[in-house]
Amino acid sequence: MARVPPRRRRTPARRETLPEDLVLTGARVWSDPDAAVSEPRSVVIRDGVIRTTGSSDSVPRSVRRLDVRGRVVTAGFWNCHVHLTGQPWLRSRTGSAPDLQAALDDMFLRRGFTQVLDLASNPLTTRALVRRISTGELRGPEIVTAGNGVRPWRGIPFYVAADLPRYLHALMPGPATPLAARLVVAAQAVAGAGVTKLFTGSYVTPTRVKPMRLAVARAAASEAHRRGMRVFAHPSNREGTSVALRAGVDALAHVPDETDGTESLLREAAAAGVRVVPTLHMFASTVTTDEAYLAPIRGALRGFVDAGGRVLFGTDVGYMSDRDTRGELEAMHAAGMSPSDLLRSLTVEPAEFMRRPDLGTVEPGMRANLTVLATTEPPTPADLAHVAAVVRDGQVVYERDTSSAAGAGADPGP
Ligand SMILES: [Zn+2]
Questions:
Q1: What are the φ and ψ backbone dihedral angles of 299, each rounded to 5 degrees?
Q2: How far is the CA of 265 from the centre of ligand 1 (A)?
Q3: What is the C-alpha separation between 169 and 197, in angstroms, rounded?
Q4: Strand blocks (E) in 194-276
Q5: Domain 22-75+360-404: what homologous superfamily?
Q6: Which residues belong to any copy of the Amidohydrolase-related domain (predicted)?
Q7: Which of 225, 279, 224 is nearest to 82 (CA)?
């Protein structure tokens, strides 16, 4: 799995204070979606790992303290559907650090994301960005990428084709045979992909969906699984959803927006443990705000959740220009998901899906990837979009300008 490699670190002869040591004071901890928000306490972090949540009396004064009085601390959020395409990511290799940092802050850190799944981008630019974050030159989330994705034979999505000169269409491979599909997935894994993305239904024009051949999708999914990679499908319509489920994918990267006939398939997906990344706000933001189009998509998500389906939070930011997560959170809430359900989709579910037992809750022994919400109250869906600070691997990687922070200094704690 492609991850940012751990920072190299001297082993001190005697224990010194490391940058990955930190104490959050006055934190109201929402340790997991089923727990209540705690009374104010300290979260003690050493070597990038949460050691205790409670008192900080025994921690040396030399260790950095971040006062988060009254704010609510959760596990670091995941965005399970992003793209690092377009500007400024095209200049990830040579672009200036301040430009890229501003984009990383606005797209990910100020939204609370400590982990993101890049569901298809140019691997060369993504790799450069991952490298610059891993060296500490840039502050950003952990990025797991799907490389450039796999499309059906002669089935490049029209919105990708529009942005890409014809000679570059080969960047997004469309294997014609099962063997070719295996080779494509293998090559992407070698190039650093940590998940696989299949366009099992590809919008080749705004109104026509081309499905991937089932045998091709099956071979690609099986090769990915053999390599320990999770498989996402872009389903689009009934046929694309059907191919995805028959091929054995692990998650749908969208609720199918052509909802006609997908109800029973989504129930089948829920029963099979196939996850769904809703991306509801993307449909409103990039297609139309017409309720006649949006209501059935929300209804499809509601049916999936009612059938016991498990949801991964994801917005499709990068394809969609709106970086605010509030629209997605409120649309998911309108589909019947409670604030606890939303937190689950942002933390516990993706951590489990991506087989990361060190992430997802705020408990001793867990990696110190944390999101600090600006709220002082039990969080509403909109509060989950309002982030005061972000900690990754025990380091403060984002802090909202406190001069503009609403409620800063309110609700004094210990
Ligand atoms: Zn997408």
A1: -60, -35
A2: 21
A3: 16
A4: 195-198, 201-205, 208-211, 230-233, 251-252, 275-276
A5: Urease, subunit C, domain 1 (2.30.40.10)
A6: 72-397
A7: 279
Distances (CA, A) of 52 to 26, 30, 55, 142: 14, 14, 8, 24
The reported pLDDT for the residue numbered 5 is 54
Between the CA of 151 and the centroid of ligand 1 the distance, in Å, is 13
Average of per-residue pLDDT across 198-225: 95
State residue 412's pLDDT score. 31
Contact 66, 107 (CB under 8 A): no
The alpha carbon of 316 and the centre of ligand 1 are apart by a number of angstroms equal to: 5
Ligand 1: distance of its center to the CA of 222 in Å?
22
Give me the half-sphere count of Cα atoms (radius 13 Å) on the Cβ side of residue 164: 18
The matching CATH number, chosen from 3.40.50.10420, 3.30.379.10, 3.20.20.140, 3.40.50.2000, for 77-353 is 3.20.20.140
Q: Render pLDDT for 60-73 as a digit per residue (tens, 0 to 9).
A: 889 999 999 989 99
Where residue 414 falls among pLDDT bands split at 50, 70, 90?
very low
How many helices (H) and strands (E) the chain has is answered by: 12, 17
Please tell me the distance from the alpha carbon of residue 173 to that of residue 155, in angstroms, as a whole number: 9
- The residue ranges of every structural domain in the chain are 22-75+360-404, 77-353
C-beta separation of 148 from 195 below 8 A = no
CA distance 146 to 121: 8
Distance from residue 82's CA to the centre of ligand 1 (Å) = 6
